[in-house]
Amino acid sequence: MIASLEMTSMDFLMWTKGPLFQLALTVFALGMLVRLMEIFMLGREHNYALPRGSAVAGGLRTLYRRFYTDAGTFKSAPFDVVVGTLWHIGFIVALLLFIPHVELIKATFGIAWPALPNPVVDAITVITLLGLLAALVHRLLHPVKRFLSTHEDYVIWAVTFLPVLTGYLAYHRIINPYPLALGLHILTAEIFLVVLPFTKLTHIFTAWVARYYNGATFGRKGVQS
Amino acid sequence: MASPHPESPAGRLAPPLRLQSKPLRQPQPEPSLGEILRRNGVSRRGFLKFCAATATLMALPPSMVPAIAAALETARRPSVIWLSFQECTGCTESLTRSVSPTVENLILDTISLDYHHTLQAAAGEAAEHAREEAMNANQGQYILVVDGSLPGPDANPGYSTIAGISNYEMLMDTVKGAAAVVAVGTCAAFGGLPKADPNPSGAVAVQDLVKDKPVINVSGCPPLPMVITGVLAQFLTFGKLPELDEYRRPLAFFGQAIHDRCYRRPFYDKGLFAESFDDKGAKAGWCLYRLGCKGPMAYNACATMKWNSGASWPIESGAPCLGCSEPNFWDAGGFYDALSVPPGRPGEALLTAGALGAALGAAAGALGRRKVKTAGLAHQAVTADQLEQQL
């Protein structure tokens, strides 16, 4: 707009969709790959002992087996297991199986997969939002959890919650005009992307590395993990 | 950021332009709108139907219909000066091409269109003379309609001139005596195609230049004819401008998104989409979101008023909405890309940054390894005796 710095909702959407999205992707890809490559380059100490089992098979097995919670963990923290699993799955489903997201991924990477019908994703989003809220309340009310929580924990909770919330608001057209609603959703997703490589959110990628390394170590020793 | 326009021009038009109570300075009293409509064979019933439709569109209660009818009956023809700048004449085509003479069409005929490039008989000096005459005769009362964007004050005026006068000069000169300015079409409202990147002619919108007069934007490429007649009807009835949105568009027509009034919306809600222009979904009339429909972010009245005398509209004919009533729609990504797809090539940025990150990470890792290796090589065994000697 000439002669005014006033930003319209459309300007805001174009800004978040265009330059800001490119910037967020750049920071995310650069930061995340630096961290992952550093981890891979660290490698592990050479083990001179004779292997008693396959490290690769052990690693892959643990990668999968860790999806099952062991009985002890469930007994001591049933809330965390149930609610944590629920919202994690909900978040991933909403992220990867919502039609507009599939279209975005198709345009960005050139790959696509079938998506879920909108009402299904909508219901899953509600479960995710409630799960995240419950997780926050539990964290605040549980004395041990509260003691262990750092500022970063609350920051990454907010950074995770906001894209889901704004996505829900945009889909249901609760914020008007729509370009503002969509722009807010994209902006919060960009904050998530930028924050990801520098916080605990790196577990999205490193959890798999850790699982594999653990499994590989035990697999080589020929024991269960 | 997106708050409604703080100072709606609706209240700023003082004194209110009550044309029916203040006859224009013309030698002979002009016939009223009601007389002209009757002369053109419009029945009382047809006229009242138009008034009711206008009331509905302006979100007025049904009790206002007689007031609209009475005001329109006695209204005199307002003088309209129509300036065409960097435009394609599509807006004029849209407004004049009615298949049969409709009430809307007659309303248009009954305004005193004193200057319009495409429609006037006069040419050259005579045409410009007509403009000046209309300006002098209706000083402070005429409605200025602009279609097309224009090169800004800092741009080369040679990109668009009329009778040797630059567009900028003509607009600023004509706007002085206007009661209000109606920017017709997306080019006049927001810059449109001429302003699209890289904007070679330095095109700007009318609202970028006109700051001291009420500006109404009737966007669309082209806009719906009924929107123009609706704005004029409200102007004639109430002597003031309609309520406007953040882009100064009449809320009555631009208050709702295409998506919210689209007859294909149930398919969106059910998750049924056409994925190509000739697949099963397209033939079944499913939602066009995945084929690039910008309906969710486009605010216009196409879904309710339709085109060509209510025959059809783009989505009904199987074409996704381009969002032509929105600012910068030319630069807002591909017409056939889904709304969620960003413009440009974000995939390239991702891959480049990823490759750079991998290289940096590998370099940092290698540096760390070398440090450990060097430290290992530099490691020397020390005996207890040697340590004791150092003490």
In short:
The complex is a heterodimer of chains A (225) and B (391). Helix content of chain A is 75%, strand content 0%. Chain A has 225 residues and is mainly alpha-helical.
How are the SSEs ordered, and which strands pair?
The complex is a heterodimer of chains A (225) and B (391).
Chain A: H1 9-17, H2 19-42, H3 55-65, H4 71-76, H5 78-97, H6 99-109, H7 118-141, H8 143-148, H9 151-171, H10 178-195, H11 203-221
Helix pairs in contact in A: 1-2, 1-10, 2-10, 3-11, 5-7, 7-9, 9-10
Chain B: H1 33-39, H2 44-57, H3 65-74, E1 79-84, H4 90-96, H5 103-110, E2 112-116, H6 124-137, E3 142-147, E4 150-151, E5 161-162, E6 165-166, H7 167-175, E7 178-184, H8 185-190, H9 192-195, E8 203-204, H10 206-209, E9 215-218, H11 225-238, H12 251-254, H13 258-261, H14 265-270, H15 280-284, H16 302-305, H17 346-378, H18 384-390
What would your notes on this structure say?
- The complex is a heterodimer of chains A (225) and B (391).
- Chain A is an all-alpha fold and 225 residues long.
- Chain A has 11 helices and no strands.
- Chain A has a domain of 124 residues.
- The longest helix of chain A has 24 residues.
- By secondary structure, chain B is an alpha/beta fold.
- Chain B has 18 helices and 9 strands.
- Chain B has a 5-stranded parallel sheet with strand order 2-1-3-7-9. In chain B, strands 4-8 form a two-stranded antiparallel ribbon.
- In chain B, strand 5 and strand 6 form a beta hairpin.
- In chain B, helix 2 crosses helix 3.
- The radius of gyration of chain B is 30 Å and the shape is elongated.
- The N terminus of chain B is likely disordered.
